[in-house]
């Protein structure tokens, strides 16, 4: 791989319990190329979210990064000031969370969210921010963007809100989007639409995406490469086609068999938009 956009090496995260540190994420190593969709899959509680939070320097209280290195476009993310982190989050790396309602403030309009975010990152002035907001809302497939700007989150469906969080992320033109279970809280139709939207984002903007899910079907639909996590560690890592065709680790096989037994179709979509069956 040329210089990766994101390089995570031997990442370790632990939780402080009384006077002990209990490991949560252990020796995690992976790289994401520019324009690549990298899937991180594993059962609930295996440490996926804490991995993203460590990358974004947003670990909750009591959780500590105890080791490893993280580089973005060749630059170490160690020893950044809090101001530099604020700039980096949004400008370079954006987070899309499971529940769009928790990413948005209930008492602010959609327009306010855009203006606030874009102004905070010094991208633009208020008038231009609203124009950009309309442009990005339209780009993520939301009709009547002008009206949406004056609406509040509670007036909109989960699928629409998730599109809006993608639009807000995109408006900041990040190099990397971290999407942590972006479809888990959505109905089946909205799930497919959001996954297709992320594929389109990568195609159109060349954005790299770290896609996190407990659902192998979600990963199979989008990811170029996959890392399978169990108990805080990566147990298998391979290009998606290879991993789905020839799983090497028993846990990957277990996940694949569980997926097959509920017999849901999943499609892989290439960078060129073509789609093929993954199973
Ligand atoms: N704030 C916290 N304090 C202490 N332990 C936590 C905290 N948040 C998560 N954990 C624990 O850390 C481990 C990893 O959690 P994490 O949220 O990263 O898992 P996950 O793979 O993302 O699963 P899920 O999708 O269910 O969130 C779990 O055992 C969890 O109970």
- Overall domain count: 2
The ordered string of helix (H) and strand (E) elements is EEEHEEHEHHHHHEHEHEEHHEE
Bound molecules: adenosine-5'-triphosphate
DSSP summary, beta strand count: 12
* Largest sheet properties: 6 strands, mixed
CATH structural class of the largest domain: Alpha Beta
How is the CATH topology of the largest domain named? Rossmann fold
Task: Give the integer mean of the pLDDT values.
Answer: 88
The order of strands across the largest sheet is 6-7-8-3-9-10
CATH homologous superfamily (4th level) name of the largest domain: P-loop containing nucleotide triphosphate hydrolases
CATH architecture of the largest domain: 3-Layer(aba) Sandwich
Summarize the amount of helix as a percent range.
Answer: 25-40%
Shape: globular
> What count of helical segments does DSSP give?
11
Task: List unreliable stretches of 5+ residues.
Answer: 269-279
Strand content: 25-35%
Description:
Helix 4 (110-120) packs across helix 5 and helix 5 crosses helix 7 (158-171). The strands form three sheets. Strands 6-7-8-3-9-10 form a six-stranded mixed beta sheet, with helices on both faces. Helix 8 links the parallel strand 7 (176-180) and strand 8 (208-213). 39% of the residues lie in helices and 27% in strands. The chain folds into two domains: 6-92 and 175-277, P-loop containing nucleotide triphosphate hydrolases (Rossmann fold, 3-Layer(aba) Sandwich); 103-173, no CATH class. The two termini are 26 Å apart. It is α/β, with parallel strands linked by helices and 279 residues long. The site of adenosine-5'-triphosphate has 15 residues, from helix 1.
């Amino acid at each position: 791989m040329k210089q990766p956009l994101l390089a995570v090496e031997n990442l370790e995260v632990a939780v402080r319990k009384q006077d002990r540190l209990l490991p949560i994420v252990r020796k995690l190593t992976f790289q994401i190329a520019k324009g690549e969709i990298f899937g991180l899959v594993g059962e609930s509680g295996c440490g996926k979210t804490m991995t993203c939070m460590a990358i974004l320097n947003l670990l909750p209280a009591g959780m500590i990064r105890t080791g490893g290195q993280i580089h973005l476009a060749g630059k170490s993310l160690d020893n950044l000031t809090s101001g530099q982190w604020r700039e980096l989050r949004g400008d370079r790396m954006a987070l899309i969370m499971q529940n769009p309602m928790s990413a948005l403030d209930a008492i602010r309009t959609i327009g306010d969210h855009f203006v606030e975010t874009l102004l905070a990152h010094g991208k633009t002035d208020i008038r231009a921010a609203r124009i950009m907001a309309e442009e990005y809302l339209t780009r993520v497939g939301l009709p009547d963007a002008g009206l949406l700007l004056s609406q509040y989150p509670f007036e909109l469906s989960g699928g629409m809100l998730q599109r809006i969080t993608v639009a807000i992320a995109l408006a900041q033109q990040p190099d990397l989007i971290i999407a942590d279970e972006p479809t888990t809280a959505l109905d089946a139709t909205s799930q497919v639409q959001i996954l297709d939207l992320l594929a389109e984002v990568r195609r159109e903007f060349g954005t790299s995406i770290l896609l996190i899910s407990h659902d192998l079907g979600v990963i199979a639909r989008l990811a170029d490469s996959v890392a399978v996590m169990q108990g805080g560690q990566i147990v298998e890592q391979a290009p998606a086609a290879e991993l789905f065709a020839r799983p090497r680790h028993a846990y990957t096989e277990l996940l694949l068999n569980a997926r097959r037994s509920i017999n849901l179709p999943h499609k892989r979509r290439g960078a060129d938009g073509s789609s093929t069956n993954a199973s």
